[in-house]
Design brief:
alpha+beta, Umud Fragment, subunit A, 2 domains, four-stranded antiparallel sheet, globular
Length: about 230
C-alpha cells in the first residue's frame, strides 16, 4: 500500500518535468524561427524605447514574401553587431538578450553583440550631416526625423558616407546618447552593418506593463534615391 501511495507523486513529478522540457523546446523553436524577447539597457533609442523596456522582436518581418516586405529607411532593427558594431564598448546602445537560452530565464545574462538602431541609409545611399538646417540628408534630400529625442541635434558629428552594397547605415534616436555607425567611421567596415546580420523588427513593448504597446512600422524616411529602392 505504501508503494501504491507514492506512485501518483512520482508520476506527477515526471509529468511536470516533461511539461517543462516541452515548454523549453517549444520556446526555443519559436524564438529561433519567429519571435524573440530582448531587454533595453540604455537610453540610445529614447523616446521610442526606455531603459528597462522588454521588447518582442519579429524575425520574419523583413523576409521576402511576408506582408511587411523588405527593409526600408526609418525601420527600427535588432541586429547582430559582430564584425561591425561589436568593437563598440562604450555601453551606449547594446540590446542584451533577455531570453538567451533555457539557463537565462531572468534576463541576467545575454549577448553583448546585439543592438537596436534605426535604418538611415540603405545600400547605395549617400548619407550626410548636416545640411544648412542642421538635419540629415539622404541622396541630397533632407530627412524628416520626428522620432528624434527632444532637443537633440541630428548629429554632433559631421559626416558624409556612401553605403556599400549589402550594408546599412544605422543610428540611434537619442543621438547624443547613441554609439552607432558614426562612432565607427574610419574603423574596418566604417560602421556599416551587413543586411544579413539583421535579426528582426521590434513589434511590441511587453514590459513594463504601463508601457505595453505595439511598435508601429514608420513610413519610409526619405523618398529620393540613387539606387531605385
Amino acid at each position: 500500500m505504501e508503494q501504491t501511495r507514492r506512485q501518483p507523486g512520482k508520476r506527477g513529478w515526471r509529468l511536470a518535468l516533461l511539461a517543462l522540457v516541452l515548454a523549453v523546446a517549444i520556446s526555443g523553436v519559436v524564438r529561433s524561427l519567429w519571435l524573440d524577447v530582448y531587454f533595453i539597457p540604455s537610453a540610445s533609442m529614447e523616446p521610442l524605447f526606455l531603459s528597462g523596456d522588454r521588447i518582442l522582436v519579429s524575425r520574419t518581418d523583413f523576409q521576402t514574401g511576408f506582408q511587411t516586405g523588405p527593409l526600408r529607411r526609418g525601420d527600427v532593427v535588432v541586429f547582430d553587431g559582430r564584425g561591425s558594431f561589436a568593437p563598440l564598448n562604450s555601453g551606449k546602445g547594446p540590446v542584451v538578450d533577455f531570453l538567451a537560452g533555457a539557463g537565462h530565464w531572468l534576463g541576467l545574462a545575454g549577448s553583448d553583440s546585439v543592438y537596436v538602431k534605426r535604418v538611415i541609409g540603405l545600400p547605395g545611399d549617400r548619407v550626410a550631416c548636416c545640411d544648412g538646417n542642421g538635419g540629415l540628408t539622404v541622396n541630397g534630400q533632407p530627412v524628416a526625423e520626428p522620432y528624434l529625442y527632444g532637443g537633440d541635434a541630428a548629429s554632433g558629428l559631421a559626416f558624409s558616407v556612401a553605403v556599400p552594397a549589402g550594408r546599412l547605415w544605422l543610428m540611434g534616436d537619442h543621438r547624443s546618447m547613441s554609439a552607432d555607425s558614426r562612432s565607427l567611421l574610419g574603423a574596418p567596415g566604417g560602421g556599416m552593418v551587413p543586411v544579413d546580420r539583421v535579426i528582426g523588427r521590434p513589434v511590441q513593448i511587453i514590459w513594463p506593463l504601463d508601457r505595453f504597446a505595439a511598435v508601429p512600422r514608420p513610413a519610409q524616411a526619405a523618398t529620393t534615391t540613387t539606387n531605385g529602392q
